């Protein structure tokens, strides 16, 4: 046998024996503290503790037996080792094993770090569970660290090769292993009575859904890539995977800051209840901030789309039986999915030079390197409307990119307007997309543009008419949304003097949109905290600096910039806002900016672009912690 194989046998013999010893040490730590009297069983320990200990001892024995077998090197093992070496001759198989080891290492390290922070302090039983299983978490971390290090040293040259491989083939074994491990963990949790799955059962459903979609996508791409239906099926699986992943991560964020229930000042759930009871006003609201008082009743001035969409849930579970946080997370995740489809459509049209793989970087930018992250889990009245606006305008843009009927495009935009009417100023972006399609077919004529515009105007007009009628039946005035008399605290007098929009607010908004920075706070333990009026969009989303590279002589790019400028021009005259992270009004024109960023990225997402994305993720994560009281607890 070659000396390298002898070296490999000795190396993995040492690893097996080390794992056995570490398992016994973990078992000793498990039984250092007796169980509570209420759960005492044999020898003063609970059944779950004894079950964990028995499992650890059994695994330690298996590792010890494996070490002895490896040391003796029987003929059948040498034959198996030779087959294993031939299997690793394929770089895809080699990388698949490496990815499994790397995932295990990150998985155990992530759990250990997560439970070492204050983010889990408010979870009722999780700290106790962590104390019970922490020795095994460190054991698992040690096994993967040792094994991955040994494997990397043994196959260093092959791992560092630059031969192209199929990502799907590399990651598919890992996905199957994760699915099997997840099912095994659920069964172990049930048998050991840990009740972890009862606390975070949703995560398993979302996680397994994401894995199932990934495996389906992988199978289709590898086995049926030449079939006509495969592209559509792949797109659906990919979109579903993006939705589930975004939903999983947003919910996990909300749970980590203990913010899953409907907050105060959500209002739309109670407005939906009022609609079901035949009212347009709220009875005894928990707060009157940002409500409008008229004829002795409190009204929600904001347009009613959110309340309409909440009607089924409120009808089934009541106003207090639904979570507006989960509601906004659901639609925010749909927005991420729609942006994914938009970016892919841009690549397919060759309007962007990025590959579908590089599009994922721009998608991550939108989902986590913008204030969309914290807004997705805020669940309050202002954020609910804005998230819905992003969702339905994203749908309108996707329909336009896919050359769908102008009636559908106009309907999506009109629905978005029933959340935030000012979104109509982005209509030139949609028109420019249609014009770009016409130009590519050499059919760009005014008559076609006029017809398309007229058709989009039909559903938009219906939605505008519905909004105006809603105003009239509330306030007796078609044009009165109730903003002028809204109870906005110390800013009420300002609004009543200048109205909702006025040039007097331009300098104020320019400051908080472009140049406002965090402030040093001694009361927050000497940390930097954001200005509650907002901080610069270039700080919350540093990748926006790349926008200067998006200027191209294309109709749709000009339309995107025109839409952005129109929206910014209006928003600069808005009264502004308070107690927010970042400049939240950027979401009113973020969807045109995302394709522009894809164009600005060029053929490949550069290391600098990626660095700016990661900086934005870090800033927005701090923003999440700050907004929900973790960064600077009261």
TrEMBL record:
The chain crosses the membrane at residues 12-31, 51-72, 93-116, 136-153, 174-194, 200-220, 232-250, 298-317, 324-343, 359-376, 383-401, 407-431, 452-473, 532-548, 555-575, 581-600, 607-628. Keywords: Membrane, Transmembrane, Transmembrane helix. The keyword Aminoacyl-tRNA synthetase does not apply. The keyword Transmembrane applies. This is Glycosyltransferase RgtA/B/C/D-like domain-containing protein. It comes from the Bacteria.
């Amino acid at each position: 046998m070659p000396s390298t194989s002898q070296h490999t046998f000795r190396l993995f013999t040492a690893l097996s024996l080390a794992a056995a010893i570490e398992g016994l040490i973990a078992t000793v730590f498990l039984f250092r503290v007796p169980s509570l009297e209420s759960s005492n069983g044999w020898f003063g320990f609970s059944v779950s503790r004894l079950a964990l200990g028995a499992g650890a001892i059994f695994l330690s024995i298996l590792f010890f037996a494996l070490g002895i077998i490896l040391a003796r090197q029987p003929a059948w093992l040498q034959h198996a080792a030779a087959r294993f070496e031939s299997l690793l001759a394929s770089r895809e198989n080699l990388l698949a094993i490496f990815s499994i080891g790397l995932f295990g290492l990150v998985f155990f390290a992530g759990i250990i770090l997560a439970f070492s922070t204050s983010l889990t302090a408010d979870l009722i039983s999780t700290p106790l569970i962590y104390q019970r299983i922490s020795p095994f978490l460190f054991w698992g971390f040690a096994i993967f660290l040792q094994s991955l290090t040994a494997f990397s040293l043994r196959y260093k040259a092959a791992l560092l090769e630059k031969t192209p491989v199929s990502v799907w083939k590399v990651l598919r074994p890992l996905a199957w292993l994760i699915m099997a491990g997840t099912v095994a963990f659920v069964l172990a949790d049930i048998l050991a009575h840990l009740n972890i799955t009862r606390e975070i059962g949703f995560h398993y459903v979302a996680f397994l859904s994401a894995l199932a979609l990934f495996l389906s996508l992988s199978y289709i791409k590898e086995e049926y890539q030449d079939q006509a239906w495969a592209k559509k099926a792949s797109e659906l699986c990919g979109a579903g995977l993006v939705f589930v992943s975004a939903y999983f991560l947003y919910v996990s964020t909300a749970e980590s800051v203990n913010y899953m229930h409907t907050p105060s000042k959500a209002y739309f759930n109670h407005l939906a209840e009022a609609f079901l009871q035949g009212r347009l006003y709220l009875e005894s609201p928990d707060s009157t901030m940002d409500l409008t008082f008229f004829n002795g009743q409190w009204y929600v001035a904001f347009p009613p789309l959110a309340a309409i969409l909440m009607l089924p849930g409120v009808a089934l579970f009541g106003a207090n039986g639904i979570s507006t946080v989960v509601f906004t997370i659901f639609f925010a995740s749909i927005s991420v999915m729609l942006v994914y489809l938009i970016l892919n459509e841009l690549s397919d049209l060759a309007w962007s030079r990025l590959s579908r793989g590089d599009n994922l970087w721009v998608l991550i930018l939108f989902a986590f390197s913008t204030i969309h992250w914290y807004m997705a889990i805020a669940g309050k009245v202002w954020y609910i409307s804005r998230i819905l606006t992003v969702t339905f305008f994203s749908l309108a843009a996707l329909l336009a990119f896919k050359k769908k009927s102008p009636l559908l495009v106009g309907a999506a935009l009109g629905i978005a307007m029933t959340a935030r009417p000012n979104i109509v100023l982005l209509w030139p972006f949609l028109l420019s997309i249609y014009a770009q399609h016409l130009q590519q077919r050499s059919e760009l004529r005014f008559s076609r543009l006029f017809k398309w515009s007229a058709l989009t105007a039909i559903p938009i007009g219906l939605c505008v008419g519905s909004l105006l009628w809603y105003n009239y039946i509330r306030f007796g005035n078609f044009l009165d949304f109730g903003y002028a008399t809204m109870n906005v605290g110390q800013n009420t007098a300002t609004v009543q003097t200048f109205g909702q929009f006025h040039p007097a607010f331009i300098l104020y908004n320019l400051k908080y949109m472009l140049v406002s920075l965090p402030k040093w706070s001694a009361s927050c333990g000497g940390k930097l905290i954001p200005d509650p009026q907002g901080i610069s969009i270039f700080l919350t989303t540093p990748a926006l600096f790349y926008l200067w590279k998006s200027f191209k002589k294309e109709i749709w790019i000009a339309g995107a910039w025109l839409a952005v400028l129109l929206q910014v021009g209006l928003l600069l005259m808005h009264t502004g806002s308070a107690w927010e992270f970042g400049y939240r009004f950027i979401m009113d024109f973020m969807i045109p900016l995302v394709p522009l960023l894809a164009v600005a990225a060029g053929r490949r997402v550069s290391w600098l672009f990626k660095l700016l994305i990661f900086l934005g993720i870090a800033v927005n994560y701090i923003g999440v912690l700050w907004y929900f009281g973790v960064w600077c607890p009261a």
